């Protein structure tokens, strides 16, 4: 059962209680991320996320970790384009401890200068690490094409230059500006009582002053032709991502696109996996994904292939994308996709952490929550023809972007020519 309480200052508390659970997952979400950053201070959201673990008013860095892990739990955080989340999972009887620590991290970080400098080095190494991982870095190259000269087109980690520029006053000022009552969502799932949880959360957050909610600058798309971002590198395998501008988080065809994603590359019985890996053995890693944001999104096809097979694999992918536009999906394939989509969601939501993330993310981004029953009803309303409709809207020549990292066995000009798939 999903329950929601909104404090007078705008803090939202959303929970899913499960009487048969043994665990508890809690997340404190802040509606800010890389979309709020200016070029001079790229990576400040992520930097701040790291530093709240380094000591608070009531807990040292060591106490934060030992207090949770010493009770059999885990604590973590992540930063995205539109939200930052601090989360913990532990046995349900330690609810008070979870709220004490997480709330102190969000509300009372100390930002010791010595820790700021140490963590700066850590983050710079993290930036280097991702650049050394082509299967990860290729997504940054794609974002630069999809949203050029916009926050969404820049790395969440920031750059070496921007991270080196960030000082303690910048971090503290950013936190004070965005870590405000209407930007905070407290979500929880597992074994607990909502009224009790809401009372505890209110005790932690009701002291925050009222403020205006964070509003992201809207994304804009001015692409009119196929684009490529090719990064020559001596790798054993070429990694590439095809990216198309997609639908926003709450688009009317979001479930149709979700099913199309399953059919094209969402599992090992998908069309691309079957055609490229199973039939021809041209790739170990091949699949598709959907990125959803508040006002925009993307559909991606990702692959790691032999350096000499890039053009061949691209042609096979394009053939499947054309097919999705030209043909209505068969009834049995459509049914399998729906069963997979709903089955995977159902299995995930048995876990208290996934349930907490599910309700927390939707409340933070859309101020809505969806039950599994509601999603099942919506997915079952999807018509077969809507998958083709989604494909026609997305898979267009002027909507196509290719990011590629590899030694370029084919010439850059040849690759760019081959991505003209219409």
Descriptive report:
- This protein is of the alpha+beta class and 422 residues long.
- It contains 16 helices and 11 strands.
- The model has no long low-confidence stretch (mean pLDDT 95).
- It folds into 2 domains: 2-205, Cytochrome Bc1 Complex, Chain A, domain 1 (2-Layer Sandwich); 227-418, Cytochrome Bc1 Complex, Chain A, domain 1 (2-Layer Sandwich).
Structure characteristics:
422 residues; alpha+beta; Cytochrome Bc1 Complex, Chain A, domain 1; six-stranded mixed sheet; five-stranded mixed sheet; 45% helix
Offer a concise description of the structure.
The chain is of the alpha+beta class and 422 residues long.
**In DSSP terms, counting alpha (H) and pi (I) runs of 4 or more, how many helices?**
16
Average pLDDT value?
A: 95
Q: In percent terms, what proportion of residues is strand?
A: 15-25%
Intertermini distance: 48 Å
Order of helices and strands: EEEHHEEHHHHHEHEEHHEEHHHHHEH
CATH architecture of the largest domain: 2-Layer Sandwich
Largest sheet: 6 strands, mixed
């Amino acid at each position: 059962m999903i329950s929601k309480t909104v404090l007078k200052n705008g803090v939202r508390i959303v929970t899913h209680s499960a009487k048969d659970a043994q665990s508890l997952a809690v997340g404190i979400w802040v509606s800010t991320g890389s979309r709020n950053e200016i070029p001079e201070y790229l990576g400040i959201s992520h930097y701040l996320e790291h530093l709240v673990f380094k000591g608070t008013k009531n807990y040292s860095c060591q106490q934060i970790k030992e207090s949770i892990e010493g009770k059999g739990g885990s604590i973590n955080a992540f930063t995205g384009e539109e939200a930052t989340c601090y989360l913990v999972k532990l046995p349900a009887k330690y609810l008070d401890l979870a709220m004490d620590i997480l709330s102190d991290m969000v509300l009372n970080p100390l930002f010791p200068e010595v820790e700021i400098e140490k963590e700066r080095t850590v983050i710079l190494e993290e930036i280097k690490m991702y650049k050394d991982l082509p299967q990860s870095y290729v997504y940054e190259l794609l974002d630069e094409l999809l949203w050029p000269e916009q926050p969404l087109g820049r790395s969440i980690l920031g750059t070496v230059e921007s991270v080196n520029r960030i000082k303690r006053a910048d971090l503290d000022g950013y936190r004070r500006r965005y870590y405000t009552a209407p930007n905070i969502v407290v979500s929880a799932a597992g074994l607990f009582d909502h009224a009790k949880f809401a009372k505890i959360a209110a005790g932690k957050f009701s002291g925050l002053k009222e403020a205006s909610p964070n509003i992201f600058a809207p994304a804009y798309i001015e692409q009119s032709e196929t684009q490529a971002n090719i990064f020559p590198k001596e790798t054993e395998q070429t990694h590439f991502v095809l990216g198309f501008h997609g639908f926003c988080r709450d688009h009317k065809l979001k479930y149709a696109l979700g099913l199309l994603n399953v059919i094209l590359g969402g599992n090992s019985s998908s069309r691309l996996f079957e055609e490229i890996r199973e039939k021809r053995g041209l790739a170990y890693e091949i699949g598709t994904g959907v990125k959803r944001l508040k006002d925009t999104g993307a559909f991606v096809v990702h692959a790691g292939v032999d350096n000499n097979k890039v053009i061949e694999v691209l042609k096979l992918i394009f053939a499947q994308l054309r097919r999705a536009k030209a043909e209505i999906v068969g009834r049995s394939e459509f049914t399998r996709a729906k069963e997979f989509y709903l089955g995977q969601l159902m299995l995930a939501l048995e876990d208290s952490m996934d349930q907490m993330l599910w309700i927390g993310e939707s409340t933070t981004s859309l101020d809505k929550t969806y039950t599994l029953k509601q999603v099942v009803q919506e997915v079952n309303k999807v018509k077969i023809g809507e998958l083709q409709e989604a494909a026609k809207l997305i898979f267009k020549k002027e909507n196509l972007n290719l990011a590629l990292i590899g030694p370029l066995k084919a010439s850059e000009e040849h690759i760019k020519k081959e991505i003209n798939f219409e």
